[in-house]
Write a sequence for this structure.
């Protein structure tokens, strides 16, 4: 990913104090993250409220995409079933809140734990039996679909009806409930997305992260050098699932409603995949850029469908346009920019710098 | 599952390499090993039925499920044959297979509505149309991604599937459509009710499967397909136009889905997202039969049809797909090369 920094670090900087040491990639990425967050904070006060809702949706996409990217981008384990972890986060927090009145913050943590546990179990079996590529993707897909079917037919998850979050009077950060057009939703989502991005940056540059990218690039070589492949893969899978569960738990709070299809449906997995692939798989900023594109695209199409221009009149009230558009985007990007938008840009930039 | 593993020598099955899948396609069918495996599958099916009998206590209920399951399983087999052929020859996991099937159903629906033809006669339109669509999709979207990663091919077919499904949704709306079978009848088979449409679909699927098998084993072009599947470079060296074989194979694979769609159309309500469910089932069948194994797909189809029907007896009130997924995961983990696959 970033290469190994042999010089740099504190000692090297101390040795030649006269010139400022070049920023390490990790610090550069952290600074970019800080600037992005600072720029984003006043957004809900500036945007009209309809756009504010789009911005919150983009942040949910971003969290989900960062989660998927951790496992499938950095770890190279192509998941087709992230709906499982999104859904477990959404359902755990919804269940605890609706049936036991537990704060969604605690529910969110519980959801993260449940999702991470599920990921470790399915991951253990998949790695134990060496499922790779399409086989791994199909196994994760089957896992998510099984959860969807089980939730749909189980009494204590309210079958196909799902959960409706009870409304409270006024607003409360503890309950993550605010008036509908309050900027607070945006700020909570922004904080969560910021933490997710922070964790993904720290993870990528951590010892575990370096092992995981090494395993992705050549598992046999990494294993023969003594890397405990199974342990690092399981850590990655658990982290990925936990981040994705946060998106699910917040989703329930924001839309005040969740059902099996919204939480565990295959379209959730597809959304996570499409977002990252469009932005740039295996990059820090790919999920963020992808979320902005996919999120605003779905808003554009929604407006288009409400008030279509003359020649698109037949679309009035029809659904499917948004997904069709991002399907086209997906195909075009995979064919023309196989590294996604961010991946292609950084490749171009570094090629120019080298010249 | 240990009885399944008796056939081979190595204790731990490994995920097969693509080349192994190709070798299997070339070697599939006609061996004693195949018969033995079929016997094992038959044994598993008998055990499943016996448990269902114990659970329900009613022979008639189980018998009805067995008959319905096997009849449906023939169709699953046909759909999966197309999918497994594409995987075996091109190494492409075609996620758009179900969406293409849905397209074929809408073609059949349109032709029946427009011309009043008998539904089965729309085979003459849907099968060539799907062959063409498949060939165009391969040339336009997938050809040239040979060197690209598996994920990229998977993503392209996934994108295509989303595009086709939502295109159908945009143009035809979500309202379900029905295709009536003129002169449909029912009869009783040792107490189980069999609808004529189901029987026709089953027989049709077996016939088309047999034709495909004959095509692969006995014709010059079939030999070329098997040669490309076994060793693309070698085939190229002896003068086979590999790119054309790929395109035609993809076309044949989608044409199988087209044929299955027409046969299944009178049995289901046609919706734009209907392909999704068939797609899932077909993937399970493909893994069960061994990716790239055409004969295995047919047997796997019958078994999955059976499992799907019996699940509703095992697990009251649960979706029949749950049992299908459970079988899927067990087979993926314990025997990813499929019940009929050879070890890598």
């Amino acid at each position: 990913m970033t290469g190994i920094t042999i010089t740099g670090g504190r000692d090297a900087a101390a040795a030649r104090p006269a010139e400022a040491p070049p920023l390490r990639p990790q610090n550069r990425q952290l600074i970019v993250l800080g600037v992005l967050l600072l720029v984003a904070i006043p957004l809900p006060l500036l945007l009209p409220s309809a756009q504010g809702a789009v911005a919150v949706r983009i942040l949910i996409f971003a969290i989900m995409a960062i989660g998927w990217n951790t496992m499938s981008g950095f770890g190279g384990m192509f998941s087709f079933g992230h709906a499982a972890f999104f859904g477990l986060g959404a359902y755990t927090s919804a269940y605890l809140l609706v049936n036991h009145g537990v704060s969604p913050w605690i529910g969110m943590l519980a959801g993260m734990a449940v999702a991470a546990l599920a990921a470790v179990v399915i991951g253990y079996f998949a790695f134990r039996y060496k499922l790779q590529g399409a086989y791994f993707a199909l196994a994760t897909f089957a896992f998510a679909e099984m959860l969807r079917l089980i939730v749909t037919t189980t009494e204590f998850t309210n079958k196909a009806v799902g959960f409706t979050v009870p409304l409270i009077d006024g607003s409360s950060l503890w309950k993550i409930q605010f008036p509908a057009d309050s900027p607070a939703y945006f700020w909570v989502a922004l904080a969560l997305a910021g933490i997710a991005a922070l964790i993904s940056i720290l993870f990528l540059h951590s010892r575990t992260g370096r092992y995981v990218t090494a395993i992705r690039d050549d598992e046999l070589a990494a294993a023969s050098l003594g890397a405990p492949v199974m342990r690092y893969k399981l850590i990655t899978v658990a982290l990925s699932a936990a981040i994705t569960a946060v998106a699910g738990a917040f989703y329930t709070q924001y839309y005040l409603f969740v059902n099996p299809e919204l939480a565990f449906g295959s379209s959730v997995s597809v959304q996570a995949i499409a977002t990252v692939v469009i932005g740039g798989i295996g990059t820090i900023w790919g999920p963020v850029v992808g979320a902005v594109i996919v999120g605003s695209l779905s808003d554009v199409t929604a407006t288009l469908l409400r008030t279509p221009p003359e020649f698109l009149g037949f679309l009035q009230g029809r659904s499917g346009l948004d997904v069709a558009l991002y399907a086209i985007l997906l195909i075009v990007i995979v064919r023309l920019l196989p590294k996604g938008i961010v991946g292609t840009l950084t490749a171009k930039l570094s090629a120019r710098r080298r010249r | 599952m240990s009885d399944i593993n008796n056939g081979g020598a190595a204790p731990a099955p490994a995920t097969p390499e693509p080349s192994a899948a190709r070798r299997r396609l070339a070697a599939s069918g006609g061996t004693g090993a195949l018969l033995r495996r079929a016997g094992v599958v038959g044994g598993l099916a008998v055990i499943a039925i016996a448990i269902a009998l114990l659970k329900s206590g009613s022979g008639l209920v189980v018998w009805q499920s067995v008959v319905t399951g096997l009849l449906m399983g023939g169709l699953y087999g046909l759909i999966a044959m197309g999918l497994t052929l594409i995987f075996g020859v091109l190494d492409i996991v075609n996620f758009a297979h179900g969406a293409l099937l849905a397209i074929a159903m809408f073609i059949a629906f349109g032709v029946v509505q427009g011309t009043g033809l008998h539904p089965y006669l729309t085979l003459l339109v849907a099968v060539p149309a799907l062959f063409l669509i498949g060939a165009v999709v391969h040339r336009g979207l997938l050809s040239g991604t040979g060197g690209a990663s598996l994920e990229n091919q998977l993503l392209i077919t996934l994108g295509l599937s989303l595009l086709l499904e939502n295109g159908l949704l945009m143009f035809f709306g979500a309202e379900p459509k029905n295709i009536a079978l003129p002169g449909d009848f029912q009869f009783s088979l040792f107490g189980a009710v069999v609808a004529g449409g189901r029987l026709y679909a089953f027989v049709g699927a077996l016939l088309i499967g047999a034709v495909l098998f004959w095509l692969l084993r006995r014709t010059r072009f079939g030999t070329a397909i098997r040669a490309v599947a076994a060793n693309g470079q070698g085939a190229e060296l002896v003068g086979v136009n590999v790119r054309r074989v790929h395109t035609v194979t993809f076309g044949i694979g989608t044409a199988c889905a087209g044929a299955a769609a027409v046969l299944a159309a009178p049995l289901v309500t046609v919706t734009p997202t209907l392909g999704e469910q068939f797609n899932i089932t077909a993937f399970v069948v493909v893994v069960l039969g061994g990716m790239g194994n055409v004969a295995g797909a047919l047997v796997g189809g019958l078994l999955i049809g059976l499992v799907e029907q019996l699940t509703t007896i095992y697990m009251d009130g649960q979706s029949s797909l749950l049992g299908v997924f459970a079988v899927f995961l067990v087979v993926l983990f314990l025997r990813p090369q499929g019940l009929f696959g050879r070890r890598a």
